Amino acid sequence: MIRFFLGKLLYLVPTFIGITMVAFGFVRVLPGDPVLLMAGERGISPERHAELSAQLGFDKPIWSQYLDFLGRLMHGDFGLSLVTKKPVITEFLTLFPATAELGLVAITIAALIGVPVGVIAAVKRGSWFDQVSMTTALIGFSMPIFWWGLLLIILFSSILQWTPVSGRISLMFFFKPVTGFMLIDSLLSGQKGAFTSALSHLILPALVLATIPLAVIARQTRSAMLEVMGEDYVRTARAKGMSSTRVIGVHALRNAMIPVITTIGLQVGTLMAGAILTETIFSWPGIGKWMIDSISRRDYPVVQSGLLLIAAMVMLVNLLVDLTYGLINPRIRHQ
Questions:
Q1: Per-residue pLDDT tens digits for 117-173
Q2: Structure confidence at residue 1 as a pLDDT band (50, 70, 90)
Q3: Phi/psi at 174 (nearest 5 deg)?
Q4: Does residue 74 contact residue 177 with C-beta atoms inside 8 Å?
Q5: Of 51, 73, 60, 52, the residue nearest 28 (C-alpha)
Q6: Does domain 95-296 have CATH number 1.10.3720.10?
Q7: pLDDT tens digits, residue range 84-127?
Q8: By the number of CB atoms within 10 A of the CB, which of 88, 126, 176, 240 ranks highest?
Q9: DSSP letter at 298?
Q10: What is the pLDDT of residues 182-227, one digit of tens each?
């Protein structure tokens, strides 16, 4: 298992280097001058522009700026925001709990609904439930997040007025964050109605963010179940007179969950991409909205380091999924 872990870890090194190149190069192709944007409407003299460019290192060749970027990363320095003058890592860690809470609730909703729907669709293959659920999953997978989010806002926030439009909790409540997760902190605060308010703010963006992962998980579960149910050991279990519940729940589902777990892990990248749009639509104060704002302000350190931190987090989750895959199926370790 240790050899398997080290092998997977070794694969991450070239991937990480490639991500640094992409993150560094992405902000350089964006139009606009960050120094001029820092100056604002007042403008700036050519001499002052040259001085600030030299201070920020923008006057150096691209390859030299990239090496400086790598050197700072090796020392754990992700740079300072050009706008707020705060360390990027501090802002990231401050905003990350909001995105993590949104993502965890979304993937939980997707798994709790997607897996049972996929199992039932496989067991009742060809039935009306199978056709309706898989067609709905295809529609959910194809639906643009920003359009789906606006529709839900119009329905549940404007027409029915069941949920708020933006934010994480009502302005009526105030308490110091303990964990950064609003659902937990609202319970710890002991304030009446705080948890309900936090939940009402969270449920709509979480449903929007869960739509695509739910569709993928449901279709993958159905496919994996259909493949497993045709195996010899499943037919043998049926021949021994085992109940359908035991055959499906113990023998079939346990083996079908291996690719499903991998799919759930891979959806983290989809969640991060979807979080950018979802947080923007619902004004959710997480790293997605933070990244969008930083791109519009040409805040180079925030954009490049933020992309790197998000990518590193996705890589870490995928590594954990690979390790879980190896624990579930020992044969994978020797491949």
A1: 998 998 888 899 999 999 999 888 888 888 888 899 999 988 888 888 888 888 888
A2: low
A3: -145, 130
A4: no
A5: 60
A6: yes
A7: 888 989 999 889 899 989 999 999 999 999 999 998 998 888 89
A8: 88
A9: T
A10: 999 999 888 888 999 999 999 999 999 999 999 999 999 999 888 8
Q: What token pair was written down for 327?
A: 């624990």
Q: How far is CA 189 from CA 8, 175, 178, 223, 251, in A?
A: 42, 7, 9, 45, 45
Cβ atoms of 275 and 281 closer than 8 Å:
no
Contact in structure between 119 and 224 (CB atoms under 8 Å): no
- Report in angstroms the alpha-carbon separations of 281 from 124, 157, 214, 326: 38, 13, 20, 39
**Distances 217 to 154, 210, 214 between C-alpha atoms, Å:** 27, 10, 5
Which two structure tokens, joined as six digits, stand for 5? 């872990």
Helices (H), 124-252: 128-142, 145-152, 182-189, 194-228, 232-239, 244-246
